[in-house]
TrEMBL record:
Source domain of life: Bacteria
Protein's recorded name: YlmC/YmxH family sporulation protein
SUPFAM superfamilies: PRC-barrel domain
Lineage: Bacteria, Bacillati, Bacillota, Clostridia, Lachnospirales
All residue ranges annotated as the PRC-barrel domain in the record: 1-78
Database matches in InterPro entries: PRC-brl_dom, PRC_barrel-like_sf, Spore_YlmC/YmxH
One Pfam family from the record: PRC
């Protein structure tokens, strides 16, 4: 599977069945080439305009299944690291 294919898949949290968004970026270990985390853009700043003000970093261990259209993850909402992009 290519990175471009992963970025087209929607991320769904199986704990609360919420859509987290789409995989915007992927964090790799440069030495091993393994995926460390998926980075998902959060909600938009102003009704979806002007970009995104947060991002969710989902560790690889929390990915349950990668399907054709979606990626299922098992994360507690408060445990997902939120970073401001300021």
């Amino acid at each position: 599977m290519r990175v471009s294919e992963l970025k087209k898949k929607e991320i769904i949290n199986i704990n609360d069945c919420r859509r987290l968004g789409f995989a915007g970026d992927i964090e790799f270990d440069l030495k091993t080439g393994c995926v460390l985390a998926l980075i998902v853009s959060g909600p938009g700043c102003f009704c979806g305009f002007l970009g995104h003000d947060r991002e969710y970093v989902i560790p690889y261990k929390d990915i349950c299944q990668v399907g054709e259209d979606i990626i299922l993850v098992d994360v507690k909402r408060k445990d997902v690291e939120e970073k401001c992009k300021v």
